[in-house]
Amino acid sequence: MRKFLAFFLLFIPLVLTAIGILELSSINKFYATRQIIWVSAGLFIAVANYFIPSRFYNSLAPLFYILAVLLLMVVLALPSNGPKRWMHLGAFYFQPSELAKLAYIFFIARWIAKHPRLNERRVTLLFIFTFIPFSLVLIEPDLATSGSFFFLFTLITFLAGADLKILNFIIFSPVAAIFSFKSWIFLVFLIATLVYLRLVRMSVPYTFIFVIYIIFVGLFSPYIWFKVLKPYQRARIVAFLEPEKYKTGPAWQILQGEIALGSGGLKGKGLHKGTQKGLSFLPAAHTDFIFSSIGEEMGFITTSFILIALFLFSFLIFQIGYQDRDIFRRVVAIGVAGYFLYHTVLNIATNLGMFPVSGIPLPFLTYGGSHILVEFFMIGIVLRILREQGVKELNLSTQGAF
Predict the structure, then answer these.
(1) What is the CA radius of gyration of the chain?
(2) Who has greater pLDDT, 179 or 82?
(3) Could you say which of 95, 329, 338, 391 has the lowest number of CB atoms within 10 Å?
């Protein structure tokens, strides 16, 4: 079974990478050439990681976290006329937020390994450690990427047994953000929240912390909308809600992505024959909308394969972590699975017009070096975890993650 899992952990990324490079060559051979360089470097990193014990990353997790936070601060200090997301390294650009996701997974895995019983105090501290990279990435601004930290925090702490206390943060946060634009509605929501917390018998310290958090979200959300989010980000959200109204403006990308996907049919138009991409109707065909570009030229069969392959890939990694007796390795694997799941869902949802344009890369397919290097780094880590488990068979059950 371990050989079977190892085979698919390598087969799926390589096939998806090949599909991505084929499509990039159809868009622009320059992109394909650069992507091959990044993938080659990524494969080297994956092989190297396979021979590095997981305890190495366990011991250095705090250092990686601090380094990632410092890099996020540095990139904000660099001069830029637009979003501050990249560092210029010679002929290449590096995105520290991708490295920060990996460092955060290591850090949260070490934290839970040392504190497996997640009481309120420990969850609160972990929430603070999550908020630091979240806020720095949000300032860049990169809303979708910043959200990945809270997604990982929620997924991992919930599976670690944080229960309703964590679910409250998931459910109430977006509602508080929406209601915050009308003060009287937000006040009613706040009172209802207090009543709910008493009915479910939450402790006084938790109630106090949660209410303060909800108030903070309520006060901070309008500030984020008007001061932090750039006009183009607000336009993307408004366009997502009313695409037909803004079809010649902010909603152009979403509508063209849907057209490209639908026009490909079952088998696609063939490489170099996509009219949406070829006539430049589809912006960002090599990045945000590569899924739509593939759909137009390779068709529904290929896009369905991509979707199934990515979900299967995430599921297999999740199961590897689910069965591991070592808490650090378990959390790392679940965090990696969460990383791929988050990226897959948001990117494809954007291409289907179900989510505002987010800038989240589609694993192994989107053009770019930062995410490719991190993704292959993760593959090496998961293969190492599989090697260290020391079992002949994995019972793929779904009981008791922690």
Answers:
(1) 22
(2) 179
(3) 391
Identify the bridge partners of residue 89 per DSSP, sorted by sequence position: 92
* Interior/surface letters 87-108, b for 16+ CB within 10 angstroms, e for the rest: eeeeeeebbbbbbbbbbbbbbb
3-state secondary structure at position 323: coil
Q: What is the pLDDT of residues 259-270, one digit of tens each?
A: 666 667 777 777
H-helix or E-strand containing 88?
A: strand 87-89
Say how far apart CA 300 and CA 63 lie, in whole Å. Answer: 45
Judge contact between 17 and 394, C-beta under 8 A.
no
What Å distances lie between residue 88 and 78, 210, 247, CA to CA? Answer: 10, 40, 34
Secondary structure letter of residue 85 according to DSSP = -
Average pLDDT of the segment spanning 98-124: 90
∠ CA 308-314-316, nearest 5°, is 95
Q: Residue 191 in contact with residue 155, Cβ under 8 Å?
A: no
Crossing angle for the helix pair 96-114 and 327-351, to the nearest 10 degrees:
140
Name the band, by pLDDT with cuts 50, 70 and 90, for residue 391: very low
Q: For residue 54, what are the CA distances in angstroms to 61, 245, 350, 397?
A: 11, 52, 35, 24
Task: Please enumerate in sequence order all residues whose Cβ is within 8 A of that of 23, keeping only pairs 6 or more positions apart, or say none.
Answer: 271, 290, 293, 294, 297, 298, 365
pTM above 0.85, yes or no: no
pLDDT in tens, 234-287: 665 665 555 555 555 555 565 666 666 666 777 777 776 765 554 455 566 676
- 69-72 own/partner pairs: CB under 8 Å, 24+ apart: 69/100, 69/132, 69/133, 69/136, 71/96, 71/99, 71/100, 72/96, 72/97, 72/100, 72/133, 72/136, 72/137
What is the rounded CA–CA span in Å between residue 70 and residue 389? 33
Domain ranges of the chain: 2-388
CA pair distance 357, 368, nearest whole angstrom: 17
Both structure tokens of 388:
């260290």
pLDDT in tens, 190-200: 999 999 898 88
Nearest to 306 by CA among 98, 10, 17, 40: 17
